[in-house]
């Protein structure tokens, strides 16, 4: 039996008909065609599937789509604004914070939410913030730099 759900995804109202156990990650990718959200481990370890649910980062592979009914979702496709890439996206580009890019959507969503709460983070806070997202390529150095750079860009743009 399917359930009709309505999600606001990246500011757009979307409807889907899903089984009760449909994962939010599968709903986004397969029902709504938003394949920017990546699925790695499928059991909550890698963070690749992270999206924002009402602004808070969640593992979409651990979230049933029906539980997101009536809520707002932001995926990596929704991070850029009308005037281009977001500060976090620009910082990852500038600092070479990605290689294969598989982990990147999850990092971008995680870091976007983190900097909203912690706009001027310490080194320890940045390490803690990204500790739930796995990257097999970069060794994290440039990701850490990118988070600090994103904080700088946001501060510059807020002036
Ligand atoms: S795919 Fe969701 S945490 Fe790895
Ligand atoms: S850039 Fe390849 S897994 Fe992170």
From TrEMBL:
Residues 3-79 form the 2Fe-2S ferredoxin-type domain. The keyword Ribonucleoprotein does not apply. GO terms for molecular function: 2 iron, 2 sulfur cluster binding; metal ion binding; oxidoreductase activity. It comes from the Bacteria. Pathway: Alkaloid degradation; nicotine degradation. PROSITE patterns: 2FE2S_FER_1 (PS00197), 2FE2S_FER_2 (PS51085). Keywords: 2Fe-2S, Iron, Iron-sulfur, Metal-binding, Oxidoreductase. Pfam families: Fer2 (PF00111), Fer2_2 (PF01799). This is (2Fe-2S)-binding protein.
């Amino acid at each position: 039996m399917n359930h009709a759900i309505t999600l606001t995804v990246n500011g757009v109202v979307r409807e889907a008909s899903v089984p009760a156990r449909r994962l939010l990650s599968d709903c986004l990718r397969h029902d709504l065609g938003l394949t920017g959200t990546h699925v790695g481990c499928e059991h909550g370890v890698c963070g690749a599937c992270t999206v924002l649910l009402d602004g808070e980062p969640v593992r979409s592979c651990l979230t049933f789509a029906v539980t997101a009914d009536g809520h707002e979702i932001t995926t990596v496709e929704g991070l850029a604004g009308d005037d281009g890439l977001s500060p976090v996206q620009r910082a990852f580009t500038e600092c070479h914070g990605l290689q294969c890019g598989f982990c990147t959507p999850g990092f971008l969503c995680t870091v976007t939410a983190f900097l909203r709460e912690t706009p001027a983070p310490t080194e320890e806070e940045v390490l803690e913030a990204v500790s739930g997202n796995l990257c097999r390529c970069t060794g994290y150095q440039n990701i850490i730099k990118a988070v600090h750079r994103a904080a700088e860009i946001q501060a510059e743009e807020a002036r």
